[in-house]
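Reviewers asked in the last cycle whether our approach scales beyond single polypeptides. To address this, we selected a multi-component target totalling 225 residues and predicted its structure end to end. The input consisted of the following lines:
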Amino acid sequence: AAGVIQSPRHLIKEKRETATLKCYPIPRHDTVYWYQQGPGQDPQFLISFYEKMQSDKGSIPDRFSAQQFSDYHSELNMSSLELGDSALYFCASSFPHVETQYFGPGTRLLVL
Amino acid sequence: SQQGEEDPQALSIQEGENATMNCSYKTSINNLQWYRQNSGRGLVHLILIRSNEREKHSGRLRVTLDTSKKSSSLLITASRAADTASYFCATAVLGGANSKLTFGKGITLSVRP
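The resulting structure, written as structure tokens, was:
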């Protein structure tokens, strides 16, 4: 079965650079969520989209933005990267009105 | 701050034994879910229990939910070395679409062969 696809899987950036993370949800899933997991930490909700509209916002820095496109894939744009942004970034998707979220393998971002 | 707090933080058992992990949360919820994460990998959904349910089974997994105590437990029976992973509970406040998850700190389970 198709799973959530995230790209790239690994990314190394310098401080103050920008990064774009992509997420391709499972076919027919219309809701996408982004989570950030720092080293040894639990995942923290960043932002979600439902039917291409932002539906909820968590602890996402103003330096980050995201959107969901017409094909339901989503991109997380991160600017002015800081060392503390180094983390594993997960995307999850779900069917309409179903609570179970299916997570992608994550993008590991390292900011040097 | 976390919605769910897992207990214990780390657990080491022998293969074949049962593993029980507990989670507590603070606010009213629509459902509680348990996820598993192998080191540095993605989160795998294990089981979901709704606020009006008290117990649920799935294979070797048994989850309970006590909404009066705002707590849940995950029991893995007849553990295997392959069960070695971190386990997270996550709560959802809203049902249906847009149910963001609030995760607790993970429990690291080590199953010795």
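The mean pLDDT of chain A is 94. We regard this as preliminary and will revisit it once experimental data from Aim 1 are available.
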